[in-house]
Fold this sequence. Notes:
The chain has 410 residues and is an alpha+beta fold. Helices cover 39% and strands 11% of the residues. The strands form three sheets. Strands 8-9-10-11-12 form a five-stranded mixed β-sheet. It has a four-stranded antiparallel β-sheet with strand order 5-4-3-6, with no helix packed on it. A three-stranded antiparallel β-sheet has the order 1-7-2. Helix 2 packs antiparallel against helix 3, helix 6 packs across helix 7 and helix 10 runs parallel beside helix 12.
Amino acid sequence: xxxxxxxxxxxxxxxxxxxxxxxxxTGEARSxxxxxxxxxxxMVAALAESQSLRSFTLPYPGxxxxxxxxxxxxxxxxxxxxxxxxxxxxxxxRSRTADDRLFQVPASFVTPxxxxxxxxxxxxxxxxxxxASHRPNGGVATEARxxxxxxxxxxxxxxxxxxxxxxxxxxxxxxxxxRRAPGWSKAVWSRVKELYRPLPESLLVDGVSLRCxxxxxxxxxxxxxxxxPGQPVADDQMWCExxxxxxxxxxxxxxxxxLALVLRRSLRAxxxxxxxxEEAALNELDGAGIDYEAVSGRLSxxxxxxxxxxxxxxxxxxxxxxxxxxxxxxxxxxxxxxxFIVVPQRLAERDRYRENFTxxxxxxxxxxxxxxTPADLVHRIEEPIAEGDDAGTADRGNPEPTQEEGxxxx
Length: 410
């Protein structure tokens, strides 16, 4: 048995009026440099999806030409020599940080040392993808949500969708040999295979590709030189899409990458990355006997059951930029009375991550959004009980049994 107490004091109800007020509180006129930084993020993300990054040939795509033109205009405005080509602009996105004179992005919005192209991987950084999602239509993150919504509709049942979603999160790269392994589900693969694509040329090095053994995501070596098997590689000489590979973890060589498929980039960023945090958070809820259900139309979001008159949600994220995460939550769908925002421990412990997240929220939302980690989640939910709130407890019972993970369904 487990009871979730009503939170102390009167709270603002989720709804259109409160949501609009929150947006108004956080609205700030961004400078020309910040707007340019955001536009370049969208350009980098789009170029990484649309063509090989090893060469840029004329004519440039329209969105890239516009970004180049606006960069030239910005340079002329501040008296700086402009980039002469798209390859030079791409190099600027690799070397120039958010606090560069060209951009002068406020530290409350993006950390000053952030770049848009990773210096080792030469691919869009996670900050770049988070910025590319910071737009009215949601950009990259909304693409991930749309793909999962379509998958859910095709699955036709909650259990089928759960199994397919878990497969995607655990298999960002699939090799033909994987399909011969024990436990491979043909039924699951038939539903998810259209979300995979051939490995792009930009992820190949000397005819091979690399996969990080820690997260399973694609990886690249510095200088595009394949590391010698069995020899250690310095952390600053390797890149994987997670950008925070634990020390000592190795990489797997895929010597026949033409037989491998990679999950869509948006799903790698906004489904695969937070998956382990999501699993840890749900395990904590299960261990405490707290019942929950998935919230339709959102990524990694759950509503707690039997919470009385209050609505309590749990949302899981793995995002590097606390200011952008706060903006995403502020400008998103109306929130529950209280929402527990679960992030990885390593992010919560970063210098001023919590403080910057809270500071970026409008005052209206600071009591309704609680930043926490999987290990602290249950404690934060139970805090009102310790404070003496008088809500009753509810018998949650046991959740309905689910099908076994490895069993095919019709």
